[in-house]
Amino acid sequence: MEHYGNFKDELKKRTDHAEEVIRRWLPEEKGFARTMAETMNYSMCAGGKRLRPVLLLECCRLFDGDEALAEPFMAGIEMIHTHSLIHDDLPAIDNDDYRRGRLTAHRVYGEAMGILGGAALLNYAYETMFRAFDHAPGDARVIQALRIMAEKTGIFGMLGGQSVDVENDGKPLSKEMLDYIYKHKTSALLEASMMAGAVLGGADEQELALVESAASDIGLAFQIRDDILDVTSTSEELGKPVHSDEKNNKITYVTLFGTEEASRQVEALSESAVSSLEKLNRKNEFLTALVREMAGRRK
């Protein structure tokens, strides 16, 4: 299982496909609100790993689902994720000038358009996902997938996690609160991706619970890995500044447990995620390889 074919080639194929799907669903840059569409598209086309749409499609494939149904959701989840990055970079939150090697949206289009463009992207995600009904009118799976997306994005999901993160910035944190932030800020959208894909593929409740558990573990592992890379990687390899957690007095898994113990926890979470997927009695070897790769990544 460790070496799925040539993993890098397979991942590139799927990332390229996700990229093509995403670009197909972007708003047209025309009319009086053209600048807002430009702001949305500037951030959407800035590259990125496209992990969420790839995971969504692979979970749909795991249950032999209709891929055409998954496509508006692949675009939608990336819009939700990108909206969170635009807003994260704003002066009021992280005040970042660069992301993915180029100027952040508010630096190019101004702060007001950063706020509005981010909000518009969040809403456009739902406009896009609702269009799955064009393909399958009234389909209960689409309704369930939309509900998962909404819940995992809002106050009980990603946005809730971001609010707790912002409110406690630079303050000492307990492991419980740090876990809450990570599980909401990072795991929630990975759960949304994998669960929506599974639901669209026709997963039942028990299967969905296993997918959620795997996604939750992999989200936490992914975020702890981020903490480790901030300490151990170089700016060149990571593509963003290192030691930023230390500089911002951020409490992370590394400050709480040290690099070795944090690495052990990543390993344990990764194994737990894989074992949840294996209980499904279905095979998607690429998905399993991707989950392992996310925990062991170098950037």
TrEMBL record:
Cofactor: Mg(2+)
Keyword Magnesium: yes
GO molecular function terms noted in the UniProt entry: (2E,6E)-farnesyl diphosphate synthase activity; dimethylallyltranstransferase activity; geranylgeranyl diphosphate synthase activity
EC number(s) recorded for this UniProt protein: 2.5.1.1, 2.5.1.10, 2.5.1.29
InterPro entries: Isoprenoid_synthase_dom_sf (IPR008949), Polyprenyl_synt (IPR000092), Polyprenyl_synt_CS (IPR033749), Prenyl_diphosphate_synthase (IPR053378)
Keyword Manganese: no
Organism domain of life: Bacteria
Keyword tags: Isoprene biosynthesis, Magnesium, Metal-binding, Transferase
Family according to the record: Belongs to the FPP/GGPP synthase family.
Name listed for the protein in its UniProt record: Geranylgeranyl diphosphate synthase type II
